Sequence to fold (953 residues):
Amino acid sequence: MENCFRFSFVRIALFFLPIFLFGFSSGNSDLKILEKDGIKYLANTLVIKLKYIPSSDAKGNVNLSSTLTETLKSINVSEAKVIFPEKLKENSSLAGIISIKYESDFDPLYISSKIAGSNEIEWAEPKFIYELDYIPNDPSYTSQYALSKISAALAWDINKGDTNVVIGIVDTGVDWDHPDLAANIYTNWNEIPNNGIDDDNNGYVDDIRGWDFGGLSGTPDNNPMEDQPDHGTHVAGISSAVTDNGIGVASIGFKCKLMPVKTTRNDQRGSNGPYIIFGYEGIVYAADNGAKVINCSWGGSGFSMFGQETINYALSQGSLVVAAAGNSNSSGSHYPSSYKGVLSVASTTSTDTKSSFSNFGYSVDVSAPGSSIYNTWQNDTYATLSGTSMASPLTAGLAALVFSQFPSYNAEQVGEQIRVNSDNIDNLNPSFQYQLGFGRINAFKALNNANSISVRAIDVSFSDEAPGGDGDGVFEAGEIISVSVNFKNYLNPTSNLSIQLESRNSYSTVLNGNFNAGAIGTLNEFNNNSSRFTFSISNSVPQNAKLNFLLKFSDGSYSDFQWIETIGNPTYATQSVNDVALTITSKGAFAFNDYPNNLQGSGFKYLGSSNQLFEGALILGTSDTKISDAARAANQSVQNNDFTIVQPFLLNVPGNIADAEGSAIMNDNNAGTNKIGITARLKTYSYSASPNNNFIILDYTLINNSGAAITNLYSGLFFDWDLIDGSGLGDRTEWDNSLNYGFVRNTTGGPTNYNGVALLSGTNYGFYAIKNDGGDGGFQIYDGFDDSEKWQAISGGIAKATAGPGDVSNVTSAGPFTINVGDSIKVAFAILAADNKALLDAAVNQSRIKYQEILVLDVEDNNTLPAEFSLAQNFPNPFNPITSIQYSIGSKQFVQLKVYDILGNEVTTLVNEEKSAGLYKVDFDASGLTSGIYLYRLQTGSFISTKKMILLK
Fold:
């Protein structure tokens, strides 16, 4: 029976329990764990990094600014503490990280996203926890194949390790008095045992052997003993059990010391063991207290800024973090192993094949034996376990030997020395070529080869700049993309370094894939700006396609590789050719494509300002039980996904009649049985020249595809504005009764611009102003935005004309409408911004004038996705010499469109190919023809239609 440690990332919103020296309060024994999409996190807790070092008392309690206090007022903060109080006196990059505990029921995922844009906050997120999953085998010893596999004995002939090199075991604790571990356990000689004094002033009292951040039930202590047989003792033994002592096992680390850092509390356990709650705090402790290597045999999915910051800090302290790649047999990102600066380790078997459970992929650096590993076990016993949890500490132990052999190397150099001296095993794993890192670690080569070379890409930038692309930042079919890369040579100098770019996807072709870097010195950085890589994107690229590439390095005997990637044909884009910029998605949402994380997109900006919009969305409804929308749901941490993408949002710069035009088609099929039965075609227009340079027009054509008449339909746009501090503090939204539009402004000395939303397509106005916390008697949306509230917002006319000051939203709407079967209506809005109210008024007037021009000029937008086949009259008619012919097809068909003279002779073929359902326009140039009457004929399937047109010269 095999033991497999598996990892699932746990996102946590934990208010920091009084931590470190100060302990936990008794109220923390009952932590509530939430879960969403496989991510676990603690309720009622936020982790925030402030842009400044906060003031605090002796116990780490933070004095929040009045602005931040007001921002967090609605969540009822009960406690705010510095996470790393000992960093305050050092002016460290970690000093501004605090934890917030609050008493409301608001989801930490939502709250952290909402406040992340505050002027005082660098980032905000829930606090991550991690879960162990394993099944221990019988502790019968057969052999330690892993040590012979990595040539440990040959390595020990070179170096058996320096007792001053310490390996931090950030885990579930270590059985530090185990007879095969005790002699290698680190001792803090600067601390006097058991005197109750923090002698070395590191923030921890009597931390002789390490630290326990969680204890049995939330109270930290100075005894990092494993509470019960779980994990950490086995990990520690693999890294550096006492070797050559005549008992038990040998270990790669040999003489190197072990620092136990317990990051669990025994009363917070899942079905498979204790949660890793304080892993990142443990990394900082280990780095601060002299660990040159830090092993993390835990992790999961989900990126954390808190996590990356602790890795960055550890590197700055000279510590190399080694982490398990994960046990999900997956190529997805896994943290902390996928963080920049971490040595990520996959697991292999005794035959150098990938362990069945092991993760693989682009972020893996090396592999190491992890299947059936026999080593120490709590309490004073031994066990055989399997997992990347076992492969990682084997590599960490080797890192300690490399530090011992190359004492002048920094942490990244040690990691690279291990990586480039690994044995390539791709031939034994053909399905995982380039996805198990450089290879399986080889201890002898890592210590023996003093002439290693290692070059890495440290920063990659993709661009669709002219002439290959249109410069809109959206990598579309047919564009040529340039790739700028910053590189670093970590080890010995190169003499004739060559770097190639290879496409490893089906949708791109490399055009320029060679860069000769030549001679590069140790630790030197360089770039390829003089000869950028380029590739073209195929016309068949699907939506949100991952475009993966290999960078290949060569210089004499040195050969290496590295993965890079970008996204082709994304389903969102930012329209930004004038004073306002708005991210528009294909699913009916605005500002961002990944609510509430809000990383995919730019939000809404005026004149290059910081983002001023947290969320935007289309809402359609016919009653309080029949709503189709893309706004947040009744659960505020989830955004509704009622709209199915028919045509993704495409942005053209320039457009046919505007400087930027976008288009998308969606229907509400994702609403299931509750759908209204509408296909919505969105066209967007923006202009760079005054007086049309401070608005974007959003023009919806709503088509009834329900099979029955749709009555009492309302259409609206919801916007959650955050003009100030990322949280909207002091914002106020109002309805202008004179010009009939809604606007938002800040009342407390924040940004001075005014933003507005105006209906352009009619006079059946609706507006609802929302104070998000409900403090003005209206409904509140911090706890979610349910269908009855959405219906109230879109259907009540000018139902609520003001809200704020505070964190506000508004809904601008139109209706009611009736749409017969197959018919359509138009509903159009302008999103605007200006320096003051008078200029915003002028922009509203101008946007309404411009929209009337668009209705005349944009012939292509007269219809939308058709339910049937049709051929329109050409325009203009009569014409000289060019006219446009529009046709529609209701399903995928082979299409022929031909032009004939009045006698029936064929003049030309305009279309002769298979087309998907949609609206099409083709131009006919009659420059070489004489004046007269001509016929044009559309044939597709059984549908045939012929019309006349007149050429007048």
User: Anything to note?
Assistant: The two ends are 88 Å apart (CA to CA). Residues 870-951 form a domain with the Immunoglobulin-like fold (CATH 2.60.40.1930). The first strand starts at residue 6 and ends at 10.
